[in-house]
Design brief:
About 45% of the residues lie in helices and about 15% in strands. By secondary structure, the chain is an alpha+beta fold. The protein has 3 domains: about 80 residues, no CATH class; about 100 residues, DNA polymerase, domain 1 (Orthogonal Bundle); about 70 residues, no CATH class. Strands 1-2-3 form a 3-stranded antiparallel beta sheet, covered by helices on one side. Helix 4 packs antiparallel against helix 5 and helix 5 packs across helix 7. The N and C termini lie far apart (about 75 Å). About 10% of the residues are buried.
Length: about 290
């Protein structure tokens, strides 16, 4: 693909200026992208693709044009390295949103996708990690810049903010998962995976088991609650807790999707929303 800065003399503004465009040419097809700059016709040097020195602020304007041209060329070079065909679509279209994005922007795309398929919990973890990256100014970087130093800076920031070991482990696990997705989708050309040098497992710490006794569960079961509309929500919460306890800790999402038809011959048949694993549980009382 060829790029050239041209002056559109077929578009003359009311003040007599003509706009400058970046013209992309491929297979005899052209696409024009505005530079946001317009100048008189006689102030453009077409052979050198520069604004003539006598034009006011020409040095600054020429610098802007040069920087933007280099940016477009860099995108083309990136596509070439990724072995992605350079087309108007991959450079400017829907596909370019993946290829030309920052870490934070890619996180946002993945968050939206997770929400669209009903994985709200995963989306929430992604959002928390993205928020942390934004606050330590790492989210604006691109995946090519995610190296060992990037990970160490992120770790240092989280520790300064008082995050515990398991919080660090969760955030780094999320970051690694999103990084691997970006590699798979060819968002960037991976040269060296920094996570191979970075031990996420060091963060995981065993947590103290927190559980109430069977006697306490029986007390909750036998507790007399007032029969009024105000206490209905409390009674309902108690029922949900006891049901979850009796069905080996079934979570609320799975309870909410149960149907009467899932109860057959004294057993409960259901599929875990999180894992898709089929479960069979015998009806029971508190042991």
């Amino acid at each position: 693909m060829n790029i050239k800065i041209v002056q559109r003399k077929d578009r003359i503004y009311a003040n007599g200026n003509c706009p400058l465009f970046f013209r992309f040419t491929q297979k005899r097809q052209c696409k024009y992208i505005s530079s946001g700059i317009s100048i008189p016709q006689d102030c453009w040097n077409e052979s050198e693709q520069r604004i003539i020195p006598s034009y006011p602020d020409s040095e600054s304007l020429n610098y802007q044009l040069k920087e933007k041209l280099a940016e477009y060329q860099k995108l083309i070079d990136k596509l070439t390295v990724l072995e992605i065909e350079v087309t108007f679509d991959t450079l400017f279209g829907q596909k370019s949103k993946y290829i030309n994005c920052t870490v934070s922007e890619y996180f946002q795309q993945q968050i939206a996708y997770m929400k669209s398929i009903g994985k709200v919990g995963t989306a929430s973890k992604y959002e928390t990690c993205r928020h942390l990256l934004e606050h330590c100014n790492l989210g604006k970087k691109r995946f090519e810049q995610v190296d060992l130093q990037f990970l160490q800076d992120f770790e240092a920031y989280m520790i300064r903010k008082g995050n515990g070991s398991n919080s660090l482990a969760t955030s780094f696990s999320v970051l690694r998962a999103v990084y691997n997705k970006a590699v798979k989708q060819k968002v960037f050309a991976e040269t060296d995976n920094p996570f191979k040098q970075y031990n996420i497992g060091k963060f995981w710490k065993p947590t103290r088991k927190r559980a109430i006794t069977k006697e306490d569960v029986r007390k909750i079961q036998s507790l007399e609650l007032p029969k009024s509309m105000e206490s209905y929500s409390l009674s309902f919460a108690r029922d949900m807790f006891l049901f979850s306890y009796c069905v080996a800790g079934i979570n609320f999402k799975d309870i909410a999707t149960l149907r009467y038809s899932d109860i057959q011959n004294g057993r409960i048949y259901y599929q875990r929303h999180k894992t898709g694993q089929a479960k069979i549980f015998p009806g029971t009382e508190i042991p």
